[in-house]
Every structure is written in structure tokens, then in C-alpha cells.
Amino acid sequence: MKRFYLIFAAALILGACQNAKGPLPRGKASAEMDEAFASYLQAVSDAKEDLHSIMVVQHGKVLEEKFFVPDTAHVLNSVSKTFTSTAVGFAVSEGLLSLDDKIVDLFPESVPENVSDTMRRVTLRHLLTMNSGHGKDPTGTVRSGDGDWIRGFMEWPQPYEPGTCFCYNSLGTYLLSAAVQKATGMKVVDYLDTRLWQPLGIEKPHWLESPAGINTGGWGLYLRTEDLAKMGLCILQGGKFGNKQVIPAEWVREMSACQVPSVNAGINEMRLKEILSDPENPSRKRYLPENSDWVQGYGYQMWRCRHNAFRADGAAGQYIIVLPEKDAVIVTTAQLKNMQEEINLIWDHILPAL
Fold it and tell me: How many CB atoms lie within 10 A of CB 145?
């Protein structure tokens, strides 16, 4: 009974510490963690990584942090996708959207005259898991044009059946943002205000928009490092923050689970076996499960990692890494090219000290 009251009291203290109106509580790191963090920072310097910030949170408290630039709103690139997925989760829980909704039904005004049968079968679930049937990401080409981005997505060549192959597709996330806006009458950044930003104590951020006035969804969100840590902590705690259920728990489970394999379209099983069986193939390391954090599977706009972790992931080194087995979150912002090397240094130096 005494143990129960101690645990209950500790939970109350942790909830009180996670005050949505203020910063996350700071804790005292162990000597081992301080040494590991110093070793990590030296390795970053030796690798000449352009790291902008890192924050290590464990048991609800910030243990280590380092800023090489001021902690102002930072471009998140594809970390934005996880926030768009969260908006979809809210809309689903409120009965405004279903994962089985077909995009041709959601956007009839954008359906091309000769739309393919395969495109008619694409659902929100396919968009969430990057399984729309495309073999190549249409984002760059469609964005550079001056037409309807949703129509451009539907017109893009679609060599695969929806749900059968993984093809990273930022424009698909834009359609998720458009679906939320159409279902709610609000842009995603506004829809999340009372549902996510305020409960986490995050000032409503800037999010880029398309020419049609829709938040870009797959990119273009700007947040501070501590904001990312709050989001990671909320996800780590099953959607709870400060004793409040913020994100639906079932959505957090589904979003962070392995929903589909994450090997890109065009790398079929036979080709993958050829790559993995040839030690001299320069692509081999990229696809080895023990070496790569890009072949561990994909959820709803989140990547699975080694060490039973998962992450929000943005180009040039933006990460929210959630490690349930360590009750920890690691956040980085950066401007670098080798993202696998970046995460390798975290596994090599910080993980053993958690």
C-alpha cells in the first residue's frame, strides 16, 4: 500500500512538473550521462556535423541540452508530417474523417477526367503509410507548376496497386492536410490550436501554405527544439501531457507502430536480395536492418528505428526520437547531409547512458 501511494505521489509530481504553460522540468543527469553527452558532442565536432541543437529527455525531465544556434522556431522539413498525421487522428476520433475515405470522394472537384481505376482506390490510409501506388515522389514536379496540387497528385503515373509498395511521397501528406481542412473548415495549424498547441504550451506556429491556402502538410512547419521535445514526450506517454489525454491513445499506438515495410518502390524482393548478398555493393549497408534506420518499417507518418524506437524525421537532420524502453526522447535540429551518421552517433554515445 505504501508503494502505491509513493507511485501515485510521483505521478502527481510529474504531472505538475509538465506544466503546459512553461518549459519542461530540468533534471540532473548522472555522471555517466554527462560523460556520454560530452563524448557525443566531440564526435559531432569530429564528424563536422552542422548540428543546431540537441535535447535529451528522460523520465519527463530534460537531462542534457546543447544549442549551437538560438532556440527560435526552426524549419522542420518532414517532421511536419507527424503533426499532420496527428491532425488526421483528431479528425478521425471526432468522426469527421475515416481512414477508408477515398481521395476521389473527398476532392471530386480535382479528379481528372480520365482518372485511373487505381487512383480511385487510394484512401487516406494509403496516404498515411506512403502506399499510394506511385513509383516516384511527385512533389517537386507538381509544386513547381502553377496548377491544382491535388489534381497533379491524381494525374501522376501510378504503376503499383495502392497498398502494395512504399514510396516516400510528401505531396500525399499535403492531401492529408487538405482533407483535414475540408472536413473541419480549418487549416491544420488552426485546427491543432486548442487540440495540441495549447495543451502542450506551444505558441501557435508558422506553417507554409500552398497557393490554394492549404498548409503544406508534409513540410513547412516551424517549431522550437523544446516544442519538439514536448511533442515527443506526449507521444512517449501515450498521448498524455500534464495528466491530460491530449492525443487519442489509440492514434498514438497506430501512428508509431510498423504499418508497412519501408523499402522504396522499385526495390523489389529479388533486387533487395541481390543487394544484401553482395558485400561489395555500395547500397548494401543502406538496406541492412542492423545498420539502417530506414528499413525498420513505417507507421502513420512516422518511421520505426532500431532499438525498438520510432521517430519523426525531417531532411537535413531534424529528429524527434522516441525510445519507449528507455522512457526517453531525443530531439535534434541540424543542417547536414548524412542523417544515418547523425543518428548513429546518438546510438553510439547517448543510448548506452540512458
Answer: 9
How far apart, in Å, are the Cα atoms of 278 and each of 79, 96, 135, 268?
33, 49, 25, 16
The residue extents of the domains of the chain are 78-197
Give per-10-residue mean pLDDT for the chain (354 aa).
Answer: 44 49 93 98 98 98 97 97 98 98 98 96 98 96 93 96 96 98 98 98 98 98 98 98 97 98 81 84 85 96 98 98 98 97 98 98
Cell of residue 230, nine digits: 514536448
Angle at Cα 167 formed by Cα 250 and Cα 162, nearest 5°?
Answer: 70
Alpha-carbon span 34 to 46, nearest angstrom: 18
Enumerate residues 6+ apart whose C-beta is below 8 A from 345: 40, 43, 44, 47, 49
Burial of 100 per CB tally in 10 Å (0-12, 13-18, 19+): exposed
* DSSP string of 251-301, one letter each residue: HHHHHHS--B--PBTT--HHHHHHHHH-TT-TTHHHH-TTT-SSSS-B-SS
In order of 26, 85, 111, the CA distances from 148 in angstroms are 47, 22, 10
Which pLDDT score, from 0 to 100, does residue 20 have? 62
CATH code of the region 78-197: 3.40.710.10
Return the residue matching grid coordinates 503544406.
Answer: 216
Would you give the DSSP letter of residue 91? H
pLDDT at 19: 58
pLDDT at 117: 96
| Rounded Cα distance, 154 and 149, in Å | 9
DSSP string, 133-150: S-SS--HHHHHHSSS-HH
The answer for 308, left when phi > 0, alpha when psi is -120 to 50, beta otherwise, is: left
